Amino acid sequence: MLADLKDSDVDFMEIAPENWIGVGGRFGRQFHDLTERFPFVCHGLSLSIGSPAPLDVEFLKNVKTFLDDFHIPIYTEHLSYCSDDKGHLYDLMPMPFTEEAASYVAGRVKQTQDILDRPIAMENISYYAAPGQELEEAYFINKVLDEADCGLLLDVNNVFVNSINHRYDAEEFLLRLDLQRTQYIHIAGHFVEAEDLRVDTHGSDVIEPVWDLLLTTLQRLGPLPVLLERDFNFPPLSELLGEVSRARQLQRAVSPVSGSREHAQNG
Q: Which of 22, 69, 85, 256 has CB 3.0 to 4.6 Å from 53, enough for a Cys bridge?
């Protein structure tokens, strides 16, 4: 599929550093060639920022080396946890929305930024339970971003999925978020398990309400970079690029606002 990709088809790509750190041989050479053609950002999977276990400092040092070696400017992770001192779960578990948890994870974000020697951005995740919830989700996210002084990776599909599963208004939720910290935006497809239950899968096309929510977001923030996530059930490349083209059209439909990025990107 990538062999058929033209340089003009996308403006940037996103990878999980865990999948590429230390990779050599043919795949390493192919990755290096791609970094020469396209700008890249890194979106981590296993930092487990909310875990009770100590941060994996050695892993973060490897991430820093990887970012430096390939001149990758942005590193993002999930506002969640996926491990404890026994090992990894390979799933994103929801943080408890409490003052204590917000301050705890903000401290770990600051520690991560110190080790990486660069600011990072945290993604709002999809979640299916809210154990021990004391705070509204938007307040919790804002508190982490403010205390850590970090950026936001805004996943619009996750906002929509959560709005169905937890029965809130997606646009009102966006109004409560500190969107000025947004570094870039994720869009994706999801699975309809039931009318009142959506599962974030990245395995299908983006649906119309998510496109509408993306447009609403861009109208507020200007033409920020947008990344299309697709993890499986890959359609023909032309269909994927059709969704990228639609994101570009929405970016062109909005006027730049004060503080927005000068050049919009899509992945």
A: 85
